[in-house]
Amino acid sequence: MAKYELKTRVTDTEVRDFVAAIENDTRRADADQLLEIYARVTGMAPRMWGPSIIGYGSYAYETKSGCAGEMCRAGFSPRKANLVLYMMGGYSDPGVQKRQDALRAKLGKHKTGASCLYLNKLADIDKAVLEEMVALDLGWMDERYPR
Which pLDDT band, with edges at 50, 70 and 90, does 1 fall under? Predict the structure, then answer.
């Protein structure tokens, strides 16, 4: 099997430079607020993962097929269409998923994908609920992949 090289890995890009370059004023302000939320919840400094993911911490993983890699423990991406928050615990663990579902019911306007939470803007949601969701997901990551 050929070795697959991941495109999403830590870069030297400064997070503040990346956020400052976001053209949409609302998206840039929301990214600043998410930086504060993630810093408070994770206690970690942000780093750029690939060209557009702001990630916190890292963990090493190996898939059932034998592929291995490293990814951020928690993170988000202020993309043009949506804010994308990566939530692995709710995707991977039925118990966490049930708790995340209960929180999502109180969150406000959002969409979900496999391990992603999509938000149009932070003004559409309850940020305290979002903070609980990030903390729950990070707790699962810490249990599954101890630091």
Answer: very low
